[in-house]
Amino acid sequence: MSASVDLDPVDLEILRVLQNDARTTNRDLATAVGVAPSTCLDRVARLRRTGVILGHTLRLDPVALGRPLQAFLAVHVGPHRRPLVDPFVAHVLAQPQTRALYHLAGPQDYLVHVAASDVEDLQRLVLDGFTARREVTSVQTGLVFQAWEAGPLLPPA
């Protein structure tokens, strides 16, 4: 993880613009934030170098890719020890249905966001991909009816 970085208003505006459209050209970005293109390029490079900007991603529509059924799987692993956890994490990340994996504190150990082609695919994933593993003691499935994305992630005021 990156340590906290001091960000001025220009840096914050650069992040706001890029979060809304990561394909913004440097020239357009510089114009939007009111600095010279060379200054903007230097600032973006610093934001990358310090780990504030982690990269660029491509978002895909799971429905268009034949995976319209999304769910969260709350998984409990026991015993919760590294020799079992590391292979479990690798296994989950290798599943084509896995969209994200979170390690939690609380009654469940992991929350897995998955996108399945249909109910049978989801059932197969739960039974063969999760509960068949000896370290998995329980799986609770919650279907996603609708999802919204929040706005840009900016540092607290």
Please tell me about this protein's structure.
With 157 residues, this protein is of the alpha+beta class. The chain folds into two domains: 41 residues, Orthogonal Bundle (Arc Repressor Mutant, subunit A); 75 residues, Alpha-Beta Plaits (2-Layer Sandwich), CATH 3.30.70.920. The protein is elongated and about 60 Å long. The two termini are 21 Å apart.
In short:
Helix content is 38%, strand content 19%. The protein has helices at 9-20, 26-33, 37-49, 82-94, 119-131, and strands spanning 69-77, 98-103, 110-116, 136-143. The chain has a four-stranded antiparallel beta sheet, with helices on one face.
List keywords for this structure.
about 160 residues; alpha+beta; Arc Repressor Mutant, subunit A; Alpha-Beta Plaits; four-stranded antiparallel β-sheet; 4 strands; about 40% helix; about 20% strand; elongated
List the helices and strands and how they pair.
Layout: H1 9-20, H2 26-33, H3 37-49, E1 69-77, H4 82-94, E2 98-103, E3 110-116, H5 119-131, E4 136-143
Antiparallel strand pairs: 1-3, 1-4, 2-3
Helix pairs in contact: 1-2, 2-3
Report the major sheet: 4 strands, antiparallel
Structural class: alpha+beta
Average pLDDT number: 93
CATH architecture of the largest domain: 2-Layer Sandwich
Q: Would you tell me which CATH topology of the largest domain applies?
A: Alpha-Beta Plaits
Report the portion of residues in β strands: 15-25%
End-to-end C-alpha gap: 21 Å
